[in-house]
Amino acid sequence: MKKRFWIWGGFIVLLFLIGCTRSGNDSVEQVSDLDIESREFQEESNQNPAGNEDVSDDLMGEKVSTSIYLTYETKQYVESIEYLKEAIRSHKGEIESSVESTPKAQVEDWETEWDREQKIGEFIVRIPVNETDPFLASLEENVGIKSHEEMRSVDQTQQYTDLTTRLETLENTQVRLEELLEQAETVEDILSIEQALIDIITEKEIVQRQIDGIDQKVDFTTVYITILEESRPSNRNGETGFWSRVKEALLDSLYAFYYWIQDAAIWIIYAIPYILFLSLGGWLLIKIGKRLKAKKK
Known about the structure:
Elements: H1 2-47, H2 51-59, E1 64-74, H3 77-90, E2 94-101, E3 104-109, E4 112-117, E5 120-128, H4 129-140, E6 145-155, H5 157-183, H6 187-219, E7 220-229, H7 242-296
Parallel strand pairs: 1-7
Antiparallel strand pairs: 1-6, 2-5, 3-4, 5-7
């Protein structure tokens, strides 16, 4: 029996070793294939270093509008807001809209939940295209820790071309109607042509506003900025090592305990009247019980 056990055990171990050897060979082949492909790609890149730029230029037209979404976390909320407004002015930008609020944010950490006030500032800013990069660079070290960034580009070249063509057609139609108006003889013809002219002029103004809107979107970058007041900004430095995660977990647990202590103290303050009432009621019940026992004796 033992001999059969050792035979089967050895057979299973042999199959396991064969499987590991095959997977190891497959991974070596995959790595070698990747090395060959990466070397070929590097050679092509060296031959045409500006290849990526050419591809992006071919894909995007002349009229491209850009929107950038940014979220910052900061301890010094007021100072961050003041710096943001100063940076907008110094880079020739303008604030399209802004909202500042102080909602109660519910924070969940492990199994603990607590409510606390958190200031939030939301801004929609328009910055000239040539000032966008300096503006974004100035925010990096002065507004707070960047927790989110997103960029969206929309190619509006085709729409712009269609609108321009439409505007030219309307202008030509307007010129033709004005010529017909000069040649009109009856009151009915004059009124009819004047009404057509009013419709053409109105539509032309609408198309012109759309063209101007696209020009403004192309000439200015729209930046959506959210600034959050945080007692401890998140770790966004790309540190994903074991000890960095241990450090973050310890700090999170300490902050959770800190807010739990605060909530517990507030709860006790709110509960003092109830505690006193229950204590008094319990004391009275005990006194009454003792008197009843004394009478029975």
